[in-house]
UniProtKB/TrEMBL annotation:
One of its GO terms (molecular function) is transferase activity, transferring alkyl or aryl (other than methyl) groups. The lineage of its organism: Bacteria, Pseudomonadati, Pseudomonadota, Betaproteobacteria, Burkholderiales. This is Chlorophyll synthase. It comes from Sphaerotilus mobilis. The keyword Transport does not apply. The chain crosses the membrane at residues 12-34, 40-65, 86-104, 142-162, 238-258, 270-291. GO terms for cellular component: membrane.
Amino acid sequence: MQRPAFSAIAELLKPITWFPPMWAFACGVVASGLPAQGRWPLIVAGVLLAGPFVCATSQAVNDWFDRHVDAINEPQRPIPSGRLPGRWGLGIAILWTLLSLLLATSLGPVALAAAGVGLLLAWAYSAPPVRLKRNGWWGNSACALCYEGLAWLTGAAVMSLGDWPEGRSIALALLYSAGAHGIMTLNDFKSIEGDRRMGIGSLPVRLGVTGAARVACLAMAAPQLVVVGLLLQWQAPGHAAAVAGLLMVQLVLMRRFLADPLARATWYSATGVLPFVLGMLTSALALRALAQGLAS
């Protein structure tokens, strides 16, 4: 069988998608409030686990089981274009799953558990008979939890040398996972036609373009309002004000997005997601300051 070019394999693993879980992992590291000295090998391994391994695995799995949809929406992708012939896509997905689990074993039981759940969600999202992506509510929830919450918790667990993160860190990880549901919905706007033809019930297909856009904005904004409230309750008003300011920026951008969601979904993904992830880091810095008695 013809061997694919390295460029086709790299394209399958989609390095551009690795940033969100790597960022979330870094937020978990920061939120732990613990010094990085002596933990850098674990931190580097955790960043690799979150991005080039678990996230890359999810991309390979999705492209293999979505090859028929991609033939309609994006025929230039490696599998439908034939640049990854035969069952190479499936083989890479299985190999990366095993490599991810192997790396996770070096990071302690909590990180291994988080990676295991993330990989299960990656396969459940794309592979039959579960194929969570057939329902935009469930599928986007699985992706959001995998990319944000589990990565955050892994970062915090690595810093605590295997212990479960504290309750406030878990709360923020789950809230930003809920917010990431909206980001996942934005990603579905580019594949409406193929999803409709292949029976995939993404939110733009189920709710229509306008309805899905409103849900995406609400999903992103509401958890951040809760974060602001929690930071105030935790006596971190400065950080709460910063998160609130970043949310206000998003609300201004959302208004423009909602005026023409189909044309501006990609634009909003490129502009509105940045203040969202900066809010994540600000919240993590709040927990760090609280742990060190520096919050104000």
